[in-house]
Amino acid sequence: GCTDAETISVIEPTPLVVSPASFTPPTCYGGNDGTATVNAEGGTEPYIYQWDAATGSQTTKTAVGLKVGIYLFTVTDANGCNITSDFVLVTQPEPPELLCPSDPAPVTVTGGATTASVILTAPIYDPVCQILSWTMSGATIVSTPVVDVVPSPYTFNVGTTTVEYRAVNVAMEELTCTFDVVVIGGADLAITKTANPSPVNT
Question: What's the pTM?
Answer without folding.
Answer: 0.75
